[in-house]
Amino acid sequence: MQPRSRSLLTVSALAGLLMGQASCAPRPPYNWGSYNILTGPIPAAPVQVRDVDMERKDYERLRELGQEWFRSGAFGSERSISDVMGVFQATVEVPCASGQADCYEKKQVLSYFFEAIDRLDGVAGNLFQGNGGPEGTGYTNDLVLHFPKGTRLHGSVPVPEELHLGLDVEAGQFLPIGFAPVPAPAGETDNAFLPDLSTLGYPDAPKGGMRLRLACAACHYSLDVDNDGKADLRSAELRYPTPGSPYKPSDAWGVGNHDISFGWLFSLAENPILGAPVLAGHIGSKKPEDAITFMRWVLGNYKKRPDDVARAVVVGMLAQPRGYADVTTDGIYNPMQLPTLYTRRAWPANSDGAQSNDSDRNNTVWTGALDFTGLIGLCGDRGSKVHLPWEPPTIFDDLSCDEFADLMTRYSPAVRFKPELQKKYVEDILGTSDGVPGMLDPHSVVVMTTPTLPKAIAESRINLDAHRVRTPADYGGDGPLRGAGMAALGVRIGIEERYVAELKPLADKYKLDLDDLMSDSVSAALDWMDPPANQTALLANAADLVARGHEVFRAAGCEQCHRGPYTTDNIIHPLSADPRVQFGGPRAPTTAGWRVLDRGVGPAIDTEPQRSWNTRNVRRFLSPAYDPATGLAYRASGALQGFMTVQSVGYKTTGLRYLWGSAPYLHDGGVGVGLRPGSKPAGDDLAALLARAGGPDVIYGMGELLSLSEPDPRAGARANAALSLQALVLQSERRKVVTSNQQPHYKLWAGSPSTGGGENPVTAVSMASMAIAGVGHDFYIQDEPGGADVTALVAFLLALDDCPRDLPGKPSQGDCHTPVNTASK
Amino acid sequence: MILSLRTPLRALSSSVLLGLLASGPALAQEEPKLPVHGWARVDADTAPIGRRAWVGVTFPFSRTTALAADVMASTTAAGLDVGPTFELGALYLSPMLGAEYSYTGTPGVAATLLWAFEAPPLPIYLESWTRATLRSPFGGSNEIIWQLQALATLRSWVALGPEFDAVYAESGQRRLGLRANFGLTKHLVLGVFAGYEFDAAARAASIGVGPDWLAARGTINFTY
């Protein structure tokens, strides 16, 4: 070979290596250049769907439909909510009016539920006659049910006289936000278990069986915009602004329900056992083995000792902290705060980035959370059929699909009413009767063959005949790369029949896939939202302080990850530098010192290791590699991608807008510092407030704050945004929070569940044992509480709202938001 | 000869340039600051080469590329190497060029290829070190050293498996044995190799203890 040829060959080989390296290398985040969030615009949502430009009127209608759907749509989840779960249909035992000891009357929760809503406007009996009207006073951010003293549930679980559900009710409504009535269809038989509201004694109540639909807004809307425990708005509907309120109705959207009690919401259902795999468990332990022991006890006893099992499950559920939601299907307590939904240019979706994009996120939530029965896809002979040897065991490993479906339905309202109905419900949930697992309306969804849905069902004759079978390739774009993640539970949302007439012309006009347009409309509604403006007196005339805080923010390196107008680089940063946490297996001790490990994705978040168990294999083997600048997938998932590329497992950089209203902080909501009820108010001097740190009127950690707030979340202790942010960025303050979270400060309302296994009953546990430790994200500045730097930094963080440059008391400097379509991908 | 020396040098410089170009946009986008990474290693061997020590450093260009450099000193020679490192998914690669000078007065030019493969949680770790040293133009003898280890990751603190070592030179060696790496701390690893020496000449030259067929090497590696 000639020297020139050799040289060419060598260069070619090296160039090939570089190209290979480039294709394997994670892509960099979007280049925001020298963007300054205090002077630059916040780009508005593009008037587009899936990169297709739309006429403004069409886009706005689509967005409105999405918002409407977010409040009330659910693809037919009402059958799962009413027939199987029996929401608010629990029976409580109320002391007899005679006062005789050990005498109890059974009463349905539903009557207390409607009584509480009826009472809101101060006029009894007008619940279905406008309930005070949309301009009346019948609204709340925390629906309170009133029970007689001594009321109990499942024989021994005490029910508070004032039970704070944390649900929001708009003025003039007879149901909380996110709940919608669905009258039983004419001609439907075997539905006498459904409540007939006309029997409750309210004039003009609808007659006949009524189902309730649970929609996204129940958890993601709040009339308490500023998170102070009091309603700021009487309605979240645009047509009903609240006079005198500094907030717009749309400010209630997507802020997250700060006070919702998932524990009570599920405990007041007729069939709480349904929630055992998600919301209950062995309190005080994060070990999968303990979760499995608890679940085995449930499975071993629910047929012969249903009351004991229901009681244990309810007691476990009631340990769920208010304002948090445990969405992990592992029988382990690891709740998270209900997240804010400012999704514009934020991808991939979910805090761990396990969902590739908005539509996959919508799909997973709608098929697995709005319809709990969709979780059948996780059972032992479907999604959990293959157990990866390096992963800890799960409660689904030996839970067969038949057994899981039986557990869900055996004590459902429908089956209690007529036991013969169980077979029908089980087959529906399994998907063997209608081809669609779970109980969503089969006409509103499509199916894909995935690990969670066997081909025999997905491609069954009934689905083929209904033209309901899809593959990722049918969706075009990066769909084929997203693969099974498009239908995490085997089902992908299509379009509700009632929206077809309006959406089909739009799909035709813009050549958009009708299947995904319903989901796109919701994504458009979420992307459109900007967080509410911070009105706090702490920021009045604080422009200089905020500007200096921005300098501190930059100097501390925060902007390297929290960058651009949406304060995120859209990169998933590793949960831990320890590969056993990230990947489930160790790295070999190596003498190849020249390798640089973990340099690619920034510092580790270092939070609780079990946070990675549920989705690390999704991230590695199902989620495609994505471009953080566009959110688009560029390399398919699969075993090769999972093993041969080191795709980080951890947390996606969180956007910081609306920090001012979303304390406590970190993904687990563990960093909370508050003022003791009755102490001096926060005032308008930020430095003075922060300097109160360590004083007797300051409470560290979420255990004590939650326990103090439980009797009345409206008046009790709450995490204060400024003090909590200080604890986020000052190591000395964080230590106090973490130490407190490790102490058994969190009082359990109903104690700990007894499974007859000789457990030591406990009345309080640490927040850390509930996986709310407040650890991780150990990036600090050097200062003292109330010092100049930390005060400035906290001021800057509090100012991150819809328009950070506009501060209270300072004239607006014009529209913050640039014209549409400038933020196009 | 000069041409054949310059050609890989050009290739190396081209690759470094390409690496810089490839990482150019990332730098422009104010990538998070990537840390400079250093390491030090000491080997003690029963072969005549005896003890060797390296001190190295890598300067990151981007998330997956870096410039690596090290200086080496042994009982017989000292030198330095420089080259890029790449991370191609589970494969780590570092081609380097260097120069060395033996204490007997003979200089040499060295080309080194380091690679490692690791895909957790697969419990497999592969590592190879190949170094070709050209001394003949300067009156010395050429040499190729190759060390390959294939370890099973048993725990985060121990990996165990076979290692093959070979030296192709006037006085060569071929060894096959067992290697264990022990993670003493997050930053400190102890490697131990013990094997069978196939080459009679190498056996004769062994400076170890015990039977002459026993080849052994101990390694301490420190990263920071």
Structural write-up:
- The complex is a heterodimer of chains A (about 800) and B (about 220).
- In chain A, strand 6 (about 150-155) and strand 7 form a beta hairpin.
- The relative contact order of chain A is 0.12.
- Chain A contains 27 helices and 22 strands.
- In chain A, strands 4-3-6-7 form a four-stranded antiparallel β-sheet.
- With about 800 residues, chain A is of the alpha+beta class.
- Chain B has about 220 residues and is mainly beta.
- In chain B, about 15% of the residues lie in helices and about 60% in strands.
- The chains are: A alpha+beta (about 800), B mainly beta (about 220).
- Chains A and B meet through helix 1 and helix 20 of A and helix 1, strand 1, strand 2, strand 3 and strand 4 of B.
Average predicted confidence as pLDDT of chain B: 84
Number of DSSP strand runs of chain B: 12
Structure classification of chain B? mainly beta
Tally of DSSP helical segments of chain A: 27
Mean pLDDT of chain A: 91
Largest beta-sheet characterization of chain B: 12 strands, antiparallel, barrel
SSE order of chain B, one letter for each helix or strand: HEEEEEEEEEEEHE
Number of helical segments with 4 or more residues of chain B: 2
The helix content of chain A, as a percent range, equals 25-40%
Specify the structural class of chain A: alpha+beta
| Quaternary structure type | heterodimer
Number of E-type strands of chain A: 22
Q: Which sheet architecture does the biggest sheet of chain A show?
A: 4 strands, antiparallel
**Helicity of chain B, in percent?**
10-25%
Strand order of the largest sheet of chain A: 4-3-6-7
Runs of chain A in which pLDDT lies below 50 for 5 or more consecutive residues are: 820-825
Compute the separation of the termini of chain B in Å. 39 Å
